[in-house]
Write a structure and sequence with these properties.
single chain, about 250 residues, alpha/beta, Rossmann fold, three-stranded parallel sheet, three-stranded antiparallel sheet, globular, disordered C terminus
Length: about 250
């Protein structure tokens, strides 16, 4: 299996030295293994998007000599490599998760959730609270279809099942185990139709055939949700997190 790694910054400002360090580790590992170094632009958070940041990232990588083999501005046959150009792909996988019972539609408005958080200091949308909220797990199938056809705003949330132990093999830390009860039902697809990091990152790693994920250990709390998502989703995607590598 040919090694394929990616550097996936968000265009939210200038590329800082920590980002360059992450790119360097990925680049060196790819070259050592005779693999491919890929640049992916993760621009799904449009509220933080900074015009010109993507071009700055590309120019910085060129300036420091870390030239991608594939990616935005470099070509390749696994694109598009900019997440905002891949919306239909994410919609397909989000709907598939709903159909398989691993995700659900949630119609709660931001105002409703804000009131709930005011009433309950530690409120979290999870397996304990979702039965009392407005979603496709509590509404009838007819009501859900009616709301979807009417164009009512919704998000798609990951349905985390309690009582599961998730095992992840980390090349540096070894076997990492966590419990599904520690996770909440993260939003996978936002009301504006854009995916969250939890969905887009996994789908892209699968379709771009990424073999190793290299980043700092501070990112593991976020990746737990993604590891869970992969364990319960379609079998063809399930293998993505067999190799998680932390080098710093």
């Amino acid at each position: 299996m040919s090694v394929r790694v990616r550097f996936a910054p968000s265009p939210t400002g200038a590329l800082h030295i920590g980002g360059v360090r992450t790119a360097l580790y990925n680049y060196l590992f790819a070259k050592q293994q005779g693999g491919a170094f890929i640049l992916r632009i993760e621009d799904t958070d449009r509220t933080r998007y900074v015009p010109g940041a993507e071009e700055y990232i590309i120019e910085t990588l060129k300036w420091v000599g870390l030239l991608p083999d594939e990616g935005v501005g470099f070509g390749g046959d696994k694109g598009p490599y900019r997440q905002s150009d891949r919306k239909e792909i994410y919609h397909h996988y989000a709907r598939e998760l709903v159909q398989r019972g691993h995700a659900y539609y949630a119609f709660d408005t931001p105002e409703e959730l804000a009131l709930r958080k005011q009433a309950e200091e530690n409120f979290t949308y999870n397996q304990l609270t979702r039965s009392g909220l407005s979603n496709s797990l509590t509404l009838s199938e007819t009501e859900v279809e009616s709301r979807l056809k009417a164009g009512m705003p919704f998000v798609i949330r990951l349905k985390v099942e309690p009582g599961r132990s998730i095992h992840v093999h980390d090349l540096i830390r070894g076997e990492v185990v966590f419990q599904s009860g520690e996770l909440d039902d993260k939003v996978l697809l936002k009301a504006d139709g854009m995916p969250t990091y939890h969905l887009a990152n996994i789908v892209d790693d699968h379709r771009m055939e990424i073999t190793h994920v290299i980043r700092g250990k501070n990112g593991f709390p976020v990746r737990r949700t993604m590891c869970y998502c992969m364990r319960v989703s379609a079998g063809q995607i399930r293998c993505l997190f067999f190799r998680i590598c932390r080098l710093f």
